[in-house]
Amino acid sequence: MTPFVAEILGTALLITLGDGVVANVVLNKTKGQNSGWIVITTGWALAVALAVYSVNSFSGAHLNPAVTIGLAAIGKFSWALVPGYIAAQMIGAFLGAVVVWLAYLPHWGATTDQGAKLAVFCTGPAIRRPFANLVTEIIGTAVLVLGVLAVLRPENLVPNTGFDKGFAPFLVGLLVWSIGLSLGGPTGYAINPARDLGPRLAHALLPIAGKGGSDWGYAWVPVVGPIIGGVLGAMLFSRCW
């Protein structure tokens, strides 16, 4: 498998399981309706871990433009590969959203809340304050990238035993779970431009009854914020560790 295909498949799996758990919680007449924030954050954490397990050996499992750009900014990834990785992540995110739409096909018509339908695909602020929302996304993504780089240092794992490769994706999922529980309340913790923009585009294009708008006026926040945060988190790691 090429890294390009791996990033497509890994990101598609991430969004299928991540947006899927949101659909299960917010859409009408599902088995998991109204099961709450703990279910959503847990589902996203498991989605990240499983996606990383799936393609880590092929592409490094970035699955996130903020991670890709952050690594490139500190010399841990080639800038020449950045456009291809981001393109793959966007394609995968869009495809994953389409899978979720298909999986919950009867429930779109059963759900009248336009905001709930949009929430399946992309994030939105609890209180709409663009600057404050941007700051939240910067902080969350900085914690993500810094945390991934710091937690997965060789000093924290057991090299050449298989334990390092086998346990590392679980730790990444645990980190995302922690971010969702602690920092996810204000904006829904996009912390990934592809995770938000790809599915938002799917929401705009897919035939969803009574879906309403795709909130393009907010769409820049979960793109710009994570990119800034990813670079800041990577740079902080490179200066301090």
Describe the structure.
- The protein is an all-alpha fold and 241 residues long.
- The chain has one domain: Glycerol uptake facilitator protein, CATH 1.20.1080.
- The protein is 70% helix and 0% strand.
- α1 runs antiparallel to α2 and α1 runs antiparallel to α6.
- It is globular, with a radius of gyration of 17 Å.
- The two termini are 33 Å apart.
- The mean pLDDT is 96.
- Estimate what percentage of residues fall within beta strands: under 5%
Can you tell me the CATH architecture?
A: Up-down Bundle
Overall pLDDT score: 96
Structural class: mainly alpha
List the uncertain runs: none
Helix content: 55-70%
- Structurally, the number of domains stands at 1
Number of strands: 0
CATH homology group: Glycerol uptake facilitator protein
Shape type: globular
Name of the CATH class: Mainly Alpha
**Please, how many helices?**
10
Radius of gyration: 17 Å
CATH topology: Glycerol uptake facilitator protein
Q: Major beta sheet, specifics?
A: none
**How far apart, in Å, are the first and last alpha carbons?**
33 Å
Order of helices and strands: HHHHHHHHHH
